[in-house]
Amino acid sequence: MWQTMLLSIALGGLTVFLLWYLLPRSSSFNLPDLLDTPEDPRRLWLSADGFFRRHKLVPFGSPAYQSAVDPPRVPPHRSFLPRETEDFVHRLWRFGTSAKLTSWSGPNSRHWLALDRFGRNVYIKLCPLDSNEWKILEYLSDTTPDRHPWNRTIPIIEFIRTPLSMVILQACWGSSAFSPPWDSLRTRLYLARQLLQGLTYMHMKGVAHGDVHPENISLFDFQLAFIDFENSIRVPAGSLQALAPVGDIRPPEPFGAPELVSTSHVDFFAADVFSVGQVLLSELQSAGTSQQTSIPRYLGLLTKMTVPSPTQRPSAAEALRGLEEIIGDCL
Hints:
Elements: H1 2-22, H2 31-35, H3 49-54, E1 58-59, E2 103-106, E3 109-115, E4 121-128, H4 132-140, E5 156-161, E6 165-171, H5 185-204, E7 207-208, E8 217-220, E9 223-226, E10 233-234, E11 243-245, H6 259-262, E12 265-267, H7 268-286, H8 289-294, H9 296-305, H10 316-330
Antiparallel strand pairs: 1-3, 2-3, 3-4, 4-6, 5-6, 7-10, 8-9, 11-12
Helix pairs in contact: 5-7, 5-10, 7-9, 9-10
């Protein structure tokens, strides 16, 4: 009897396997499938073609891209609160037709550049459902008219849940922190204030970014936004520290705090302050000696933010207050 039962179970399992193997499978959109896709940027869009069509998205590199609608010709009235009738950035035509990199992979994510149904450039990121990134972005994202003016999180258009993953659809501004270059003292202090306001807001909300460097800061029309929260952590709002173990992702040199390579647990608030200070210091150094000596108090503030000892650095709020005093005296 038991031999017959085992044989029936085995035959049933074989039947299920053969059906799975032989029958055509519909286009799915989940993390394991997409991470296994060959890295061919000319054809990678095929792996999620069904998903893109259902959500009226046109990935760069697909045939439909060439005939996609042009973006709205109205720039956003408020950069962080774009309306459907507005583009995300100020331009009069669609860009990206010659983009060399239209999709790529991170350690636990898949990325695309695409157009939404209005012809606007969007950045799509796929991450696991248990990822902190989308949860933190959802927490920080605010599309209400009374959005906090210090909230410098990139505009999120939509979160789309799939069976195994979360799709983050966000505005694509298209520039890193230093493109275009900061060309004057007024611009330099104005953008430095934005970075410190954004960092202060995140830390007030209990979020440490964890991976601040120029490529994770997007610039458009004299507005800066933080992007890529893959290494972010969240602690209770109002916390003075964000103690956590060091992960595999960290800012590249010279933007990573020294404690990230010397200790196993760090205060990521202090590490963020170092990274933002180093971003601003690198920008100032690239501007030349005359710019560095023109505002010695600003250079002194950045030096304090980047001291090796995390306990000796100012908090983001303290650094912002120091910058406001400099701006009040200089401008």
